[in-house]
Amino acid sequence: MPTVLGIAALTFAAWLIWGPEPRLAYAITNAVAVLIIACPCALGLATPMSVMVGIGRGAQMGVLIRNAEAIEKLAQLNTLAVDKTGTLTEGRPKLIQILPANEFSDAELLRLAASVEQSSEHPLAHAVVVAARKRQLPLQSPVDFESTTAGGVAGTIGGRRVAVGRPDFLREIVGTDISALESMAAPHQTEGATAILVAIAGQPAGVLTIADPVKATTPEALAKLRRLGVRVLMLTGDNSRTAEAVARKLGIRDFQAGVTPDDKHERVNRLKAAGRIVGMAGDGINDAPALAAADVGFAMGTGTDIAMESAGVTLMKGDLMGIVRAIRLSRAMMRNIRQNLIFAFGYNALGIPVAAGVLYPFFGVLLSPIIAGAAMSLSSVSVIANALRLRKARL
After folding, report:
1. Which residues contact 161 (CB under 8 A, 6 or more apart)?
2. For 160-215, how does the pLDDT look when each residue is reduced to its tens digit (9 = 90+)?
3. Which residues are catalytic?
């Protein structure tokens, strides 16, 4: 703006001093032409038009982008941390096996575990409860219920304390040796199943194994992310055997098992401190801190509300192909913004000298303010038309 005002003042002065008669008329006309042709409408439209059209295009594909900052970071994304359950997998786990111990029956083990789990919102807990209800087992509401994030749940059922969850959680709650349960669970974990341990009245009671199939689109999405130059790592609260089995199946070399929400948050921050542009994909309450800490958080639309509130991007279809589309869209948007800025600046760089009258000494050509006004409008049209091309972008 100061530059254009200065050029207009110099144009006025030059025509007033050296121009032909009527000098004042030429000076005013050409100074006004400079001001009109340099009107920064195209510059003002260059970025918001691309952002608006791009966000609309993303919404058509089920990719909801919350803000423009997420777009810029998405285009630069080079590292993606993903949760396992509900992100790589379908998030609809099913109970596949009941392994009782210490003379507990299958039905009793499942009934007591489901009675406690019905107060939890975790997908694994839901799988246990669904299995119990299919068997029409009578469930009771737990007394003194407690839940430890990424650990497990415990409650009193019929006077007996029931704890369900990870080994560390059971050791802390029950204070008993559960190595026998861990040995029972190990073969199933190496096959990719998730095992949750159960203790009843201070005794190891058994193991429930749960399977959560990998989403059909996950392998293709991971391959495309690698081709886009994105390094993928898996962060899961599951045990190392299960995590290794899933990572091996999907070709993920970098993974970390047994992580808590704080661990995920810390890992994301470490990657950012190392200079990486980090995305985090997850669907649960446990993922919310890491989603908020990442440069770009991706929440599965099939997940929890708090995950979607913490993320910059929500994937309504709930699979990783949405991230592929989001990255391609953001890169197309950034290219489009740069093109628009080139149009706008290039137009001013060519138009201002012509409006100032540099062609008059050689060709006798002057630019009328009316023509300058039309040209200024056309520059805005060119920016808008270029931004609208994003609606047809192949993603």
Report:
1. 154, 155, 173, 174, 200, 201, 202
2. 999 999 888 888 877 778 888 989 998 988 888 889 999 999 889 999 999 888 89
3. 83
